Amino acid sequence: xxxxxxxxxxxxxxxxxxxxxxxxxxxxxxxxxxxxxxxxxxxxxxxxxxxxxxxxxxxxxxxxxxxxxxxxxxxxxxxxxxxxxxxxxxxxxxxxxxxxxxxxxxxxxxxxxxxxxxxxxxxxxxxxxxxxxxxxxxxxxxxxxxxxxxxxxxxxxxxxxxxxxxxxxxxxxxxxxxxxxxxxxxxxxxxxxxxxxxxxxxxxxxxxxxxxxxxxxxxxxxxxxxxxxxxxxxxxxxxxxxxxxxxxx
Length: 249
Known about the structure:
Blueprint: H1 6-23, H2 32-39, H3 44-65, H4 68-71, H5 76-85, H6 89-97, H7 102-112, H8 118-139, H9 141-171, H10 178-232
């Protein structure tokens, strides 16, 4: 009889252990039955595990890279204003070259095109701001995919395991033993539970990052509009505002 190699079995158990760490903050002794069922949950469990790793990696990357200092550093406008008033454009360019933020790139565009009209500069910085905000939003789109796919994979795994369970019961005359039937159903439903346990955090993180994008986008728009009105339209009190292009999932 063909037997599963020990390396594959060990890899499967390590994968399940990682999945538990990702989807559950604490595991108590009473959860041992749940853990044991995960080890035998079927082909859907490794797929859900891969989705959970994807969601975790995207979440960590976004929480690290999609922060205020990379979009709109709060102290940058004030540092640039003094240099602009003094006409030290070369120093502004040197300062902005050290800043890795969307606002710095937008201000640098203003400095390089300071001889252009308001309309030209406004369109240029609008494109920069809109593109970078959409770029950050798109990098978090994988969380929406995980939140959608994980429950479906879990449901598919449940259906397949239910088919296997009823087939095994039919051949073994298991209908006379309700314990055997209940055990097969519980083993099948573990796939759905695993899928939902991954989908819910992914969905929550997706909406959190979506809200962060809107919040940072508004602050970016506010600072850019202030600088545009001060530097390029000083005599106009109601200048046209930068319009951000919304892109939400």
